[in-house]
Amino acid sequence: MSDEQKPQLDQGTGGVPMRQPVFLLPWPVTALCGLLLAIEAASDFVLNDDGRSELLTWFAFIPYRLVDPSHYVGGWLPLIWTSVTHAFLHGGWEHVGLNVVWLAIFATPVTQRYGAVRMYTLFVVGAVIGAWTFAAISHGVDEYLVGASGGIAALTGAAVRFIFQPPVIAVDPETGERRLAGRHLATLGEFARNPTARFFSLTWLVLNGIVPILPMFMGSDAVQIAWQAHIGGFLAGLLLVPLLERRERDGR
Length: 252
Fold this sequence. Notes:
By secondary structure, the protein is mainly alpha-helical. The chain has a single domain (about 25-250), classed as Rhomboid-like (Rhomboid-like fold, Up-down Bundle), CATH 1.20.1540. Helix content is about 60%, strand content about 5%. The protein has helices at about 25-45, 50-60, 65, 80-85, 95-115, 115-140, 150-160, 190-195, 195-210, 215-220, 225-250; strands at about 165-170, 180-185. The protein has a two-stranded antiparallel ribbon. A hairpin with a 6-residue loop joins strand 1 and strand 2 (about 180-185). Helix 5 (about 95-115) crosses helix 6 and helix 5 packs parallel to helix 7. The chain is elongated, with a radius of gyration of 22 Å. The relative contact order is 0.12.
């Protein structure tokens, strides 16, 4: 076999072949996905029915606490932390599995652009805003809100502000070498004028917006989706992501 026919290997320092990582997700995204799966496993395999009920009572978000604080132990006080902790609980393996896939897709570009701390911060902020949007629109319904969808929706809203923008090419002033410098964060006007970003976002919002009318066609118990939290989280990420951008620039 000639040299031209030999397979080419990426070389590291000292000519040692570089190994490709098994997992391509950034470690903060992998860690968050693993945490969600671990909590669901503990809830499913370790806790009994009473333990699961206690877990939901103390860590799921329950808007009805605002209407009648005496209805649940702890009164309204757990609303302080359950605005966040509900995002780490799920209603089963199908629920957490779908959220983990969606999280991997949209947390990855946000993490690559802003880092772990900012990604986690936006996830938590999205969860909080999603929970309180759910409470505001549902008028204190006596239901448990669980799931990472609000936080993931915030990461989705943030990502669509830049992932559909054309790449920025930088030129080295000394060598003239061209390299990919990333994608700029679109203004709301640029975002609205981008057909791909606009189509994706409108489709996402419409699909969530029609959830309330689905029971008319599928039965009253057919749909258990907190669409209010999804929309609240998405809009939070879409509007708040410039704050992360300014902090990123200040830190350079």
